[in-house]
Design a protein that fits this description.
By secondary structure, the protein is α+β, with helices and mostly antiparallel strands. It has one domain. It is 30% helix and 20% strand. A 3-stranded antiparallel β-sheet has the order 1-2-3. α1 packs across α2. It is globular. The two termini are 21 Å apart.
Length: 76
């Protein structure tokens, strides 16, 4: 999963910047923007950005995305 997230960040399919807002709520069974699997883990992360539509993540995928964007240098 980390390699996939790195590729998505590199190809600008996932944002590197901080979200304008972050919500945690019940899972809505939509596809995760990182792994593509339905989010059915009980809850999901929804992030709103100024430049892209909101994105939804599995909790584990959110943590990986957040760590990888930080390692890549946020906003670069």
């Amino acid at each position: 999963m980390r390699q996939r997230v790195r590729q998505l960040l590199q190809n600008e399919k996932l944002p590197r910047g901080s979200p304008a807002k972050l919500w945690v709520g019940p899972a809505t069974h939509v596809p995760c923007c990182c792994c593509g699997a339905a989010i059915d883990t009980g809850y999901e992360y929804e992030l709103a950005f100024a430049t892209v539509a909101s994105l939804k993540f599995h909790p584990r995928c959110y943590v990986i995305w957040d760590e990888e964007r930080a390692a890549a240098g946020e906003g670069r």
